[in-house]
Automatic annotation (TrEMBL):
The lineage of its organism: Eukaryota, Fungi, Dikarya, Ascomycota, Saccharomycotina. Keywords: ATP-binding, Glycolysis, Kinase, Nucleotide-binding, Transferase. One of its GO terms (molecular function) is mannokinase activity. PROSITE patterns: HEXOKINASE_2 (PS51748). It comes from Candida tenuis (strain ATCC 10573 / BCRC 21748 / CBS 615 / JCM 9827 / NBRC 10315 / NRRL Y-1498 / VKM Y-70). InterPro entries: ATPase_NBD, Hexokinase, Hexokinase_C, Hexokinase_N. This is Phosphotransferase. Pfam families: Hexokinase_1, Hexokinase_2. The keyword ATP-binding applies. Residues 244-502 form the Hexokinase C-terminal domain.
Amino acid sequence: MIHTAQSSGPLTNAISDLELKSELEVPYSPISDNNDQELQISEDESNASSYSDGLLEDLNEALTENSVMSMLPSFNINPTGSEHGKFLVIDLGGSTLRIAVVDIKAPAAGENDEHRADRVNIVNENKWIVSNKDKLIDQNFFRFMSSKIVETIKDQSTISVSDDVINVGITWSFPLTQVSHNSGRIVHVGKGWKIGDDIYDKDLKAVLETTMQQEYGLTIDVRVVINDSIAVYAAGKFLTSHLKIAMVLGTGFNMSCSLKTGQFHSAKTLNEDAVLVNSETSLFGSNLFRLTNEFDHSIDSRFSRTERPFKAHMTFDGATDSIFQPSEFIASGRYLPELTRLAIVKLLNNNEMFRDLTIPPSSKLFTAYDGFSSELMCFVSEQTDISMIKAKFVEEFNIDISNNDTMKVKQLVDSVIQRGSYTIAIVVIAFIKLLVMHNRENIVGEEVIVGYVGSIMVYFNNYRNSIIKYINESPYIKGLGATVDLMSIDDSSIVGAAVGAAYFQS
């Protein structure tokens, strides 16, 4: 049980700055001057629904006004559980190429959701790190990829180089100009990659199929091309029919869901009745500015503006020609540790923390984004033994901090996590409202599953549990009689591409 230390103004202000103000539904109350008073939690969550209404307006604006930045449509994948088959899967990420063989068994008679995961077998998987100097998508890269495909096939016996046709699913972590569920032109990349002139604007499906035929005489059929966010949805929806939303929450933040297109701008319908929407969630959250503080302003000075000259989910920032990602800055795994570090440094500079210690300017604690790691933040959050946290600080920073300072650090970490989890809950509630609005979904009394991937969600148990708490204590969710839960989707980039290939095969 954590008790508050005797505290003066600067510490109280630093903690309070990391919390929501009382009129905005405070996850944590400010530190008390009473040593024996526990850190209290406010249970009034009514404003979560209000914030989610504002976010819902922005989500709908992006859909109806044809934002080129967000709410990007992909061809719908709605697995029923009947999907099966043997597939080669390619997953190209920021720095890795993964190739796997996946065998999805046919369902047994009377099978329910609980047994679907048992039918998915990743027979074989190989991974290659792509160095920065090799991040060029040209014809040579497709030759390299083809050689690794053959290498992977020869390592197992589920599919063979002698097969008439090898069915393929691709998770492609870069935007494509998609023309169908299994083809798209290669015109955009990121994460340090470039496109060769010989490949630019070429169709991914055609290039890979032709290269495999020319180089190895193998016939492959690319059945689906999806991005990593959509892969989470496809995999999760196969594993449980209760999945409604997919979430990627690691260093970044994104969510996707399936929506009917009746109220969409025509350019976002893909001439389909329903599409999968890759929301680019990080761009949303302009209505959450009242939850921010001086530490957020240090992350991005645009948080300190009293007026919003542009809508991040609709357009670039004209002043800087850059994107703005408010919800990601508040709640993702890259920024939570940095917010904590900034608060610690402020307290240190105000002589409110580590006052009896000499912290040299060369200490990594003063290094932006590397000074307080996500691993350390997770350890402090999950650990209840003060002596273990003290020992961790000796290991990380070579400083022996006092018990009082240790408790202050833990309170800072808890405050950052509470505000972040509150923010994620607001976004999830907004997406549930979006599903009800566009799909006329009847989720009264239903279990709603949000499938997720991302290290912060996997390892930060307190963060994950706090998100669930804030969602289910929202008056909106209570009013529906629904229960929302989070579900980890393992190997989503591999399984999702295989499920997508099976879905379109059938």
